[in-house]
């Protein structure tokens, strides 16, 4: 084990010198994350449909059920749960199973029948997950539209002599100001890490294949795993530097919070960076030159990270085949992890499926890269 660590450390030190001498790599690794945070943080906004919502009906009357039907009739919402208590809806929000919850108070039908006598009003409470600022804004607009349409329908049914005393109260969780940047920046961090780590490891290692230095290295008695780890370690450190740059810039410019465990954050980031680096290394083992490695790395990292990870388009709105394909996209898990840890303060108890997903991908990709190196040389 000691000899293994010494050889791995020596290879990592050698690779670090190569990285420091290559100014293009430094610019790509450090300049691109800052550029992407600024562009996405200030310029990107998204629209969504079929927002998963829960209805908490404390009144349980025909009148309160008509309110629920008004939301169910809207294309903007999809009722996925009907918990008995508002506290249960809050748990669903924290788990990420719903994005909003409508709470109908007790006495809704009675107050509605009295027509707002003595200045009475009915407060419909809307609980919203503000970690996704875009979804929160859309949900608020559509919720107000649904309530307004319901009120207009009630008023029309009373021949214009009745003004329903209904009002909505909004409480936004995780992102009270509903700022898009708080939703975008964690996604940018995952995309930056996923794309750049794949490209950096695939291009630089492919260049060594072209020069023949990799064949010479694999011809030595050094273990294949030691060579793989020695190549990945410098880029692993560089990946953490990228992550810190993005998070610090996001906190400074956009006030992105860190409500969860930093230890958990760095732990899952380690697994994700290993995924991306192993993917790039695997590409370099298959590709014959830098040009091919660049093309394959870009196609296999940029498009999935942007389109199949939930960063731009909600995964629930995708066709079923694309939803299945997204399970092998590491950025899918990392975006959920970053938003859950930073914005919602979730822990392992809520995020363990994503942690397991990224860990399994990391193990599989490292194993494939190591196995491919043996087949290439045997």
Secondary structure layout plus pairing:
Blueprint lengths: L1 H20 L1 H21 L7 E7 L4 H12 L3 E5 L4 H10 L4 E5 L3 H7 L7 E8 L3 H25 L8 E8 L6 H32 L1 H6 L5 H31 L7 H25 L3 H18 L12 H6 L4 H13 L5 H30 L1
Parallel strand pairs: 1-2, 1-3, 4-5
Antiparallel strand pairs: 3-4
Helix pairs in contact: 1-9, 2-7, 2-9, 3-6, 7-9, 7-10, 7-11, 7-13, 9-10, 10-11, 10-13, 10-14, 13-14
Characterise this structure:
The protein is an alpha/beta fold and 378 residues long. It has 2 domains: 2-43 and 180-377, no CATH class; 51-173, abc type-2 transporter like domain (abc type-2 transporter like fold), CATH 3.40.1710. The chain has 14 helices and 5 strands. A 5-stranded mixed β-sheet has the order 2-1-3-4-5, with helices on both faces. The two termini are 25 Å apart. The model has no long low-confidence stretch (mean pLDDT 81).
Give keywords:
5 strands, 9% strand, five-stranded mixed sheet, alpha/beta, 378 residues, elongated, abc type-2 transporter like fold, single chain, 68% helix
Number of strands: 5
Strand proportion, as a percent range, falls in 5-15%
The structure class reads alpha/beta
Main beta sheet strand tally, sense and closure: 5 strands, mixed
Strand order of the largest sheet: 2-1-3-4-5
Query: Mind telling me the C-alpha Rg?
Result: 26 Å
From N to C, what is the helix and strand string? HHEHEHEHEHEHHHHHHHH
Q: Span from first to last CA?
A: 25 Å
In the predicted model, the low-confidence regions spanning at least 5 consecutive residues are none
Provide mean pLDDT, rounded. Answer: 81
Helical proportion?
55-70%
SS element count, helices: 14
Number of self-contained structural domains: 2
């Amino acid at each position: 084990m000691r000899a293994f660590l010494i050889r791995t450390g020596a290879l990592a030190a050698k690779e670090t010198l190569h990285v420091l001498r290559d100014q293009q790599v430094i610019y790509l690794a450090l300049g691109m994350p800052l550029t992407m945070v600024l562009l996405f943080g200030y310029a990107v906004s998204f629209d969504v449909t079929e927002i998963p919502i829960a209805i908490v009906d404390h009144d349980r009357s025909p009148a309160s059920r008509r309110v629920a039907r008004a939301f169910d009739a809207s294309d903007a919402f999809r009722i996925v749960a009907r918990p008995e208590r508002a506290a249960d809806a809050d748990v669903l929000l924290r788990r990420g199973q719903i994005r909003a919850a409508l709470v109908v108070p007790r006495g809704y039908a009675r107050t509605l029948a009295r027509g707002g006598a003595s200045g009475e009003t009915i407060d419909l409470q809307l609980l919203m997950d503000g970690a996704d600022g875009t979804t929160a804004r859309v949900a608020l607009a559509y919720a107000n539209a649904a309530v307004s349409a319901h009120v207009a329908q009630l008023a029309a049914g009373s021949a214009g002599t009745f003004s329903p005393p209904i009002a909505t109260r909004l409480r936004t969780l995780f992102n009270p100001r509903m700022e898009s940047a708080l939703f975008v920046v964690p996604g940018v961090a995952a995309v930056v890490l996923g794309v750049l780590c794949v490209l950096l490891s695939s291009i630089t290692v492919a260049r060594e294949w072209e020069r023949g230095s990799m064949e010479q290295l694999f011809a030595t008695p050094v273990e294949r795993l030691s060579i793989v780890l020695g190549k990945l370690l410098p880029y692993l450190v560089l990946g953490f530097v990228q992550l810190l740059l993005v998070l610090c810039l996001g906190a400074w410019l956009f006030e992105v919070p860190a409500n969860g465990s930093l230890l958990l954050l760095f732990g899952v980031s380690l697994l994700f960076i290993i995924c991306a680096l192993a993917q790039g290394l695997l590409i370099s083992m298959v590709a014959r030159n830098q040009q091919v490695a660049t093309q394959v790395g870009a196609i296999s990292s940029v498009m999935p990270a942007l389109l199949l990870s939930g960063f731009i388009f909600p995964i629930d709105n995708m066709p079923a085949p694309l939803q299945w394909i997204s399970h092998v996209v590491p950025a899918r898990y990392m975006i959920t992890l970053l938003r859950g840890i930073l914005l919602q303060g979730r822990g392992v108890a809520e995020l363990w499926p994503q942690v397991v997903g990224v860990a399994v991908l990391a193990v599989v990709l490292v194993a494939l890269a190591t196995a491919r190196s043996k087949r290439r040389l045997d």
